[in-house]
Design brief:
single chain, alpha+beta, five-stranded mixed sheet, 18 helices
Length: 651
């Protein structure tokens, strides 16, 4: 029998007066209730945690970053005045696939990256300062929405400008991972050898970034786990689904409805492929600590630019085609987190590729694989595409004879004559070379001796190469389906710990043991009549209802969503909210729900065994019994627990 005792462990709480006053003060303004609530909530949370810092960086680091940003804006203004001058057009930077770089271009790029890492004029060093820009609020504003492409485009340009302070003519190359996907064994690609990025497995002990210390807490040595389980490099055939679309809303989260057409999903799989279970590339916070990150994202930017050029042929203005969103982190007018002063929508400007850089075409058989060295890429006539050479194929092609120098163990730039003669050698710490002449893929001793970084939030691949399904997956992923509603919950992507505008995610990593889960009920009623201007959403046949829990007694935010079939007039479903366990005292949180159109749902609180009444969504949770929450995610699908909160959504 279900009872609500006097000391109910979940009960309605009062809205803080400061928040209530904010709501009242904006009633007459010409903005929607969702916008009022969001603005007040973010302001309240920001005020509550105003003394916290988002990043562990000093004033000197931010001043250096500001100087890089100023250089970008000066160049944009200068070049915009010269846009019709062919001389300056020819002087634009040209970003190329890394295996098509000349020997000198490749060496200059690696030297510039290493120079940033060695420059301690700002703490901890210039490279790490840039890597840490991917933390804090940027974790959420740069992923899972339309600002994904915009934020990273500007981020790449900052990194490229930093490189050019070390080597004036260096341009950021891209890594076209479709060239490796087409290999029989992509993990044997020439890219992850000491000629390019270093060994693919365990501690990175060879190549230009060998034994790099990374700014994790505690510090760790750079490592990889290629190939990650349940991952994928970019499949060129699946990628074509992106280029069958015309509008950004069709290829970006959350308005995109087809996984294969989602550009960010293609991106996610590569992070998991390189980072795997414990490599830096697999973590949202740690991925830029591996320079592979910048090459990978440069290719994503290349693909986005190809899509924008396609839009131009259809007469679509890419600069104004910013998808609709109710996520405040992805609002077009929001200042780019950690990269201020540009706004999120500024990254959609044509100025970047019109005035600063352009891309050399990706390697194809038609362009002779970008004229890459024979030992790096080749045209596979059966696949009708360029494919990366493997480490063994490189040796068979006498590739060593064509390389002047490269990085062996410890980052020392050498190429012994005996290796040129294709004789197996001994690498750093007496790790024997394999039959390819390169050092072994993994140094097991060093990998065991050095701890892996702690992953508080991982990327998850939604597009998976079947060849990577060989080991049991460890990440937590729950989904429940019914005829009309699909509930999707992924801890890696939807469990967020935030505190409004002053996020300290990197300092307070979530621990699943500290979180409790409670069911909520959602009733959605679909009205036939709808607001003009929403037709582009209505035609998608599905839309999301997001439920968001913000901690008021702790710093944290949990977000989850259900997907509702547009054709269903009424649907009922059960979702989950997560909050910090009330181990001692009480937990206070604010729960709200809204649909893809930015329309708020009305919360109701349970007052008897079967009766609900309208309430604010503000809840107080105690540790008393009988408990109205689950101690872990494992029991969250138990249907016997009555939801305390119920949301009525009408759209």
């Amino acid at each position: 029998m279900f009872l609500i005792p006097a000391s109910a462990i979940i009960m309605e709480d009062t809205v803080p007066p400061m928040l209530e006053e904010c709501y009242s003060g904006q009633v007459d303004k010409n903005i929607t209730p969702y916008e009022v609530q969001t603005s007040c909530l973010e302001s309240f949370l920001g005020q509550m945690y105003k003394n916290t810092s988002t990043l562990r960086l000093g004033k000197e680091a931010f001043a250096w970053l500001d100087s890089l940003g100023r250089d970008i804006h000066i160049r944009l203004r200068r070049q915009s005045r010269r846009r019709n001058n062919q001389y300056y057009t020819n002087r634009m930077r040209v970003r190329k696939e890394i295996r098509t770089l000349s020997e000198d271009e490749r060496e200059d790029f690696f030297d510039a990256v290493r120079a940033l890492k060695a420059d301690k004029s700002v703490a901890p060093n210039q490279y790490d300062v840039l890597a840490l820009m991917h933390q804090g609020d940027a974790v959420d504003s740069a992923h899972g929405g339309p600002n994904f492409v915009s934020w990273h485009r500007y981020y790449l340009l900052l990194f490229e400008n930093a490189l050019r302070t070390k080597k004036r003519r260096v341009t950021l190359p891209y890594w076209d991972s479709t060239l490796d996907y087409l290999m029989d064994k992509p993990e044997d690609t020439i890219l992850f050898t000491e000629i390019f990025l270093g060994n693919p497995k365990g501690v990175v002990y060879s190549g230009p970034f060998a034994l790099w210390n990374t700014p994790t807490d505690p510090p760790t040595i750079l490592r990889r786990d290629i190939p990650g389980v349940f991952s994928s490099l970019i499949n060129p055939q699946t990628l074509q689904q992106v280029f069958k679309k015309k509008y950004h809303r069709e290829i970006l989260t959350p308005t995109n409805v087809e996984d294969d057409a989602n550009l960010e999903y293609h991106h996610d799989g590569v992070h998991v492929w390189v980072g795997g279970e414990d490599g830096h590339m697999g973590g949202v916070y740690t991925s830029p600590m591996d320079p592979t990150f910048f090459l990978h994202h440069c290719y994503i930017d290349y693909l986005w630019e190809q899509f924008r050029q396609r839009q131009k042929r259809f007469g679509i203005n890419s600069e104004t085609d910013y998808p609709p969103t109710t996520d405040t982190y992805h609002s077009p007018s929001r200042i780019m987190d950690n990269l201020k002063p540009p706004k999120n929508s500024d990254g959609y400007s044509n100025s970047f590729t019109r005035n600063i850089y352009r891309y050399a075409p990706a390697p194809t058989c038609k362009n002779k694989c970008g004229r890459a060295k024979r030992g790096f890429l080749f045209c596979d006539r059966k696949k009708k595409a360029c494919v990366s050479r493997s480490r063994n194929e490189f040796r068979k092609e006498d590739g060593f004879k064509s390389v002047k120098n490269w990085y062996r163990g410890g980052g020392k730039k050498i190429i012994p004559q005996s290796v040129k003669n294709s004789s197996p050698q001994i690498g750093i710490n007496s790790v024997a070379a394999d039959t390819s002449g390169f050092v072994s893929k993994v140094d097991a001793r060093q990998t065991r001796a050095n701890k892996a970084p702690k992953m508080t939030r991982k990327f998850k691949a939604r597009i998976v190469d079947p060849r990577t399904k060989s080991r049991q997956r460890r990440s937590i992923d729950q989904s429940f389906a019914s005829n009309n509603v699909r509930i999707a919950f992924d801890i890696n992507m939807h469990l967020r710990q935030e505190n409004g505008n002053n996020n300290s995610l990197n300092r307070i990593p979530y621990n699943l043991d500290n979180w409790a889960v409670a069911p909520i009920a959602i009733t959605n009623t679909h009205a036939r009549l709808h607001t003009p201007g929403q037709d582009h959403l209505k035609n998608q046949r599905t839309f999301n209802i997001t439920f968001q829990t913000d901690g008021f007694s702790y710093r944290g935010r949990h977000m989850e969503y259900i997907t509702v079939d547009e054709r269903t007039l009424t649907s009922e479903s059960v979702g989950s909210i997560a909050f910090e366990k009330p181990v001692s005292g009480e937990t206070k949180a604010y729960v709200r729900a809204y649909d893809s159109y930015g329309k708020l749902c009305q919360p109701s609180c349970l007052v008897s065994q079967s009766m609900y009444k309208e309430c604010s969504g503000m809840i107080k949770v105690t540790s008393d019994y009988p408990r109205m929450y689950f101690e872990s995610y494992n029991g969250a699908s138990d249907s016997n627990m009555k939801p305390f909160l119920k949301f009525i959504c009408v759209n």
